[in-house]
Design brief:
single chain; 320 residues; mainly beta; Immunoglobulin-like; 4-stranded antiparallel beta sheet; elongated
Length: 320
């Protein structure tokens, strides 16, 4: 049957004109004719119905499970156009059985600066053209993909790939993907969504000193001096120290050494993990306890002359 818009027109109205139904749920739609029909009915594999003379007829299903269902309301009239039809815009949807996420061709920890693929797989979702796959890093959406070019109405399996090049800031970040059905205003008020579990990013990166430049420190006999070799890195760096002098055994694997028994000279600290090793030098210069450096002497002189200046001004004011 073909609806020919001539004469008085077909005047068939579907209420609602578009209906969104969850798989297995009931549905009903009314077809109304604006002029008296000879026959008014629904052509459908489920819930077919017809009436004579009545101006409306209802199509309904107690549990809609037919993915190829395309209900059509038809009317036969005494005047032209004698036959016409209206096809119901029916969307039967199903949320996925599962949504999963994994690394492609890789297991275990990732390395900083290397590119990886994250794969999100969605099992048995329909209709796929309404699906939006959203990728999240923690709570921030970083990418999404749609499947509007696909037209299959029955459940399918689809996937999406996210390319990442992790940095040390990504260590501990959680990635997940969310399958969302955007079914339009006739669909549920809240779009049906199913989320994958979280993939925890474990990112390995080499040691990096908080302050990598060599340090020169004054060494005063009997006073403590601190050598700070702290470094970031994952796995956590281990430390070793080298010097012309023998260090106490308990200090050889510490990031920070605080001691009053160190001798003048160069101390080299090395921070290592399975990716790399980096070193930092400390130069300890002996200074006697009573010796003052040039900056201290300069400060004393400035303070002395300021005192003399204030005193002279005070005396001058008293004389006036």
């Amino acid at each position: 049957r073909v609806c020919v818009l001539s004469g008085e027109g077909c005047s068939l109205v579907l209420k609602p004109a578009r209906v969104v139904v969850k798989f297995g749920e009931p549905v009903s739609v009314t077809c109304e004719a604006a002029r008296r029909p000879r026959v008014l009915g629904w052509e459908s594999t489920v819930g077919a119905a017809h009436t004579q003379q009545d101006l409306s007829v209802q199509w309904k299903a107690d549990s809609l499970i037919d993915w190829i269902e395309e209900p059509i309301c038809y009317g036969v009239f005494s005047t032209a156009p004698r036959q016409c039809e209206e096809k119901l815009n029916l969307v039967l949807y199903k949320t996925p059985d599962s949504v999963s996420i994994r690394l492609v061709n890789h297991t275990g920890s990732m390395k900083e600066g290397k590119e990886y693929q994250l794969l999100c797989e969605v099992q048995n979702i329909a209709p796929v053209q309404y699906l939006v796959l959203r990728w999240y890093r923690d709570q921030t959406e970083v990418y999404h993909s749609a499947f509007t070019e696909l037209t299959q109405s029955s459940p399918v399996q689809v996937s999406s790939i996210l390319l990442i090049t992790p940095t040390r800031a990504d260590n501990g970040a959680q990635y997940r993907c969310v399958a969302e059905l955007d079914l339009g205003p006739e669909g549920p008020q809240l779009a049906p969504t199913v989320s994958s579990g979280s993939l925890n990013a474990s990112v390995h990166y080499p040691p990096d000193f908080l302050s990598p430049e060599p340090e020169m420190l004054d060494l005063v006999v009997g006073e403590e001096v601190t050598l700070n070799c702290s470094a970031t890195g994952y796995p956590t760096p281990i430390y070793s120290w080298l010097s012309a002098h023998t260090l106490q055994e308990t200090l050889t694997d510490e990031a920070i050494i605080t001691s009053s028994s160190l001798l003048p000279g160069t101390y080299t600290c090395t921070a290592s993990n399975r990716l790399d090793s980096k070193s930092k030098r400390f130069l300890l210069k002996a200074r006697s306890k009573g010796r003052r450096d040039s900056r201290t002497i300069k400060s004393i002189f400035i303070s002395f002359f300021m005192f003399i200046f204030v005193y002279i001004m005070f005396v001058f004011c008293l004389g006036v």
